[in-house]
Each structure stands twice: as structure tokens, then as C-alpha cells.
Amino acid sequence: MPASKLRPFWIRLWRLALLGAAVLVIRHAVQSRDALEAAAALAPERLRDFFPDIQSLGEASPANGWRPALDAAGQTMGYVTTTEPESARIIGYSGPSHCLLVFDLKGVLTGIRLLKSHDTTDHVAEVVADRAFFRQFKGMKPGALPDQPLHMVTGATLTSAAIAQGVIEKLGRAAGTSLRFPEEITLEEVQRLEPTAQKMLPSAQHRGGFDVLDAAGKKIGIAVRTSPTADAVVGYKGPSDTLMLLSADGTTLRRIALRRSYDTKRYVAYVTGDDYFLNLFNQSTLERLADLDFKEAKIEGVSGATETSWAVAEALKQRARSLLEAQPTGWLRQIRWRWQDTGHVAVLISALLMALTRLRGIVWLRHAHHLGLVVYGGFIAGELLSQGLLTGWAAHGTPWKSAPGLLLLGVVALLGPVFTGKQLYCHHICAHGALQQLLARRVGFAKRWQVPPNLDRWLSRLPFALLALVLVSVGLGLAVNLNALEPFDAYVLRLAPHGHTNELPAYLYPISGLLNRFVWVAGSASIAIAFIGLVASLFQPLAYCKYGCPTGALFKMLRFTGTNDRLGLRDWLATALLGIVALLA
Q1: Domain extents for the chain?
Q2: What's the pTM value of the predicted model, to 2 decimals?
């Protein structure tokens, strides 16, 4: 291959590697800060509005992460935990959110507080302002699912849905916790069933269970128990808790042992002394055990303790059923497809047709495409790519489960310039860019302003300077509201409650009647940038895109045409800046 063709290939590879390195630097920096903040969030002095007499916190339960709130005498007043680590993988719009959960002595959720959110500031503000959203969780119990669909916050649906899922998943993990049988599974009792067991770790496969490891660290089984799933199964006098040792893959019951029972001691002794009954369910798959018909299988209870033994058998059956129901599904079934995602796919198809075919030469069709982007992509879906969004994905992962269409937009926006040499997102997908193009072509009273060459050169550097500011602020944890640097949140509106009046800037008074029917999710900075950019586009086409958009600057750095087919000053400055941030973060 000629050297002239090899050079662009290596430049593309270098820039993609630089982008990947930036993601790693951002992720390491943000997650390191998160670990420190999480520890500080559970300081006793920050919990006194829930427990006025709190003096300290006990050790966290290895099964569910709950920590007892202790008074001066060491008495437990309730329990606290956070939705982490479960919520760390639940991405809202641009990142996860973490909550403090407070429980009373009966395990009922009595308090909830948002500790930290990596979602966009404006969306989080909408959730915090909706007190009904947080009130709906109070009174929930571990393992209990809500009786009706949860209320989500309009204008911040993805953010509120991520918070709700974090709470529900934490309660689901606590399904392995029982206030009736609070004693966790110990290594000693597992060793009675499996002598080679040397260590136990919380199981990722079965909530409330533990992976059993041998001396070499090899997984040889999974230990679970029937409580609290079967706490309501009463024998002669009360329920029983049974240890279940599963195979290493978690699909087969190997052995059982009765842990503790509220039944009559004599009847419990009959059951524990009957080896035939205790070995009756060995090597049963969870599927067989969950659907087992005791009479059809000719399973008989222990003589003299029939009701107690039948309760143990029924508890095993119920627990097997719950384990099967909780098993994770395939990745495809985890995706929640929304109407917005269908719209995003339609926008992508339209954008590719306009960018790569001769359809873009049909004026009325091009204008219709731009109008559709403004109406749907801007005001209806309200999901535009921004630095707040992209840095959130870099730090915490992408919302491939909750917003796959939005993720697809991001992939096309980042890789489109690399493989097509075209600014697909900026020219054919972005609602703000589309509105600027419509205004520049359809409003005839404004005379185009010729920007002096020197001023144009300096103004063109502003987006890259803002992009550098984004990297520094995220990497070093500076208090910079990234959404206030861009206008995209100005497209996110929701209907105003009755009697509400917006506090509008003076330059928007002429359209105050219309705007007072809606509530802006965006802050005043985003609204001002949007308005000023649109006015400027009347005199200079795509003025904001040229002179103010850091997201567009990122896509432009990945574009490979003309002078961009060689490494330039921007590449070296970006490399140096990334190295400095990596050292300081």
C-alpha cells in the first residue's frame, strides 16, 4: 500500500486511540472520587435527621450491605445502606444516580435521599423538585415489588427511571435478608456439607447467596437459604430456615441442612435425625424442584414430624422457584425499547440518505428533513448529544439497556466522521444545527455578516478551548456545569402546572404568552446560548456550530479529509493536555 494511503490510516488509529485514552482517564478519575464520596455519605453526623441519637454504624452485612444504626448503648435503631454498587451500572440519561436508603427495625423503607447523581444537572433538578417521586418508595420492604407502575418525572424520565431501578434492585438484593432469621450463612455450616470449602464470597448469580471456594480459589458451589422467601411457610408451630448447597453452576441442589426453626424442638430433632429425608432432594435440578409434586413423586414426610418436614420441603420448592425467577435473561431481552428509540432510528436512516445520496440536492426535501429534526429531535424527543452526556457515558458506561436508540446516535456521531469524512451528526442529525440552517435560508431580512479573517481564526478556536475545559473539569473534578456550556437542554420542555409563570429573560418577553405554557428543564445559561446562537445564525450561517460548539469540535477532530489527513497542532495539544490530566487526576 502506498505511503500516502497508509498515513491517513495511522492518523485515524492514533486519534481513535486518543479518544479511548480520554475515556479511560475520565473513568478512573470520576470513579476514584466516587469511592471517597461514598464513604463520607454514611458518616453518622450526616444521618441524624433520620436517627437523632445515632453514635455509630455497625459492620455492613455481607449479604445485602445494610449497616445497623447504633445509639450510645450499642442498640440498633434501624438500618442504612446505599443503592451502590447496584446503581453504578444503571445509566439514566448520561450517568448513574446513588441514593441513601433508611429502614426501621422491621426492615421497612422509611427514608430516601439522593446522595450523588452523574446525570445532567437540569434533569436531576427536575427529579429533586418532584417530591412525589421519592415519597412513593416509602413503606416498601425487601423483595417486595411495587403494586402499580412507579411514577416517573416528566422531562427527566431516564434520570428518574434509573433512580427507581437502583432502589428496586437494592431492595431485591435485600430479599436474602430476614429479620426473623437474621443469622447469615457461615463458612462452618457450609463445611459440614462440603468439607473442602475454604472461603465464601457474595454470589453475583443468586441474590443473598455465597459462592463457595476451595483452597485453590476454585468455585465448588453456591450456598443459599430458604429464608426469607419461605418465612411464611409454617410447619406445626413456626417456619424453618434451611441451608441449600447448590452446584458450582447454580443449577442443581447438592445437599441441604436445617439451620434454625421456630417449630417444636422435638419435631425439629426428628427431621434433622432423618438422613433419608435430608438426602431426598439431592441432585435435583432447580427446575425439577420448583415444579415438584410431592404426592406424585411419592415424597413422604418424617414420621412423627410430618408437618415440620412438609414445611421444609415446601420451603425448598419456593426457594427454587424464586432462584429461577431471579436468573438474569439474555442481553437482548434486557433492552427496553422506547418510542424515542424508534424515532432515533428513523432520524438516522433519513440522515444517511441525505448525507450519502443525491436526495440532499432536493431543496424542499432537505428543508423538510431539517424541520423534522427540530420538531422531533429537539422538542419532542429532546435527546441531543452534548458534552454532559458524552462525558457521563465515558465515566460510567452507556445506556444500552434503557436508551439504545440514543446510544446508536452517539456511535454514528463519533464514528461517522472517521469512516465517511462527513459531519453526519452536526449537518444531518442535530436539531440545533438544523434550526440554524432553516433560519439562515428562510429569513430574508438579515444581511450576512462577513467575519474578518483574524477574528474568524480566533473564534474558530473557541469550541476546542471549551472542549479542553470539559476534559480538565471532568478529569480534575472542577465544579463546572457542562450543560451550561451548550444550548441543547433548551429544547427540553414540559407542560407547566396550572398557575405557573416562567421567570423569563427580557429578550423573551415578546413570546412570553407561549412560553409560560411550558416549564424549561434547562438553566438560563443554556437558554441564553441557544437564543444568541440562533440570532447569530441569521447573520452568519451555523454561527454557533462554527464558533461555540465543543461537541462539534470533538467530531471535527475525528474527521479525516483535506488538511485533517495529517497530524496538526490540535492533535499534539490534545495529547499533551490528556497526559497532564492523567497525571493530576
Answers
A1: 3-176, 187-325, 333-584
A2: 0.72
